[in-house]
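Collaborator request, handled under Task 6.
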Amino acid sequence: MRSDVQHLKTVLARCPEVEASHQHIIDCGEIPTCHLGALLLDWIDTVVRDDLPALTGHARRMNNDLHAPAVEFHASERVDAQRSTRL
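Structure tokens returned to the collaborator:
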């Protein structure tokens, strides 16, 4: 186990892009785990700014989808309001 950790540290030290990706992935995992949803937009901005190809695309897609639940929620509110006025 200790050799795996040391090997990871060696790989990360040799490639700044891999090290940055590694940290972004850790940070992303902490957002839902630690209930830090307010930090999601900052995380997305940081990833996009770092311009790491695989993560940047993922972050941009997340940013585009952030509003989808809100749109659906408001749409269901309108449907419920219409139903209640008909009753």
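The cover message to the collaborator said: "The first helix runs from residue 2 to 14. The mean pLDDT is 80. Please let us know whether this matches your experimental observations."
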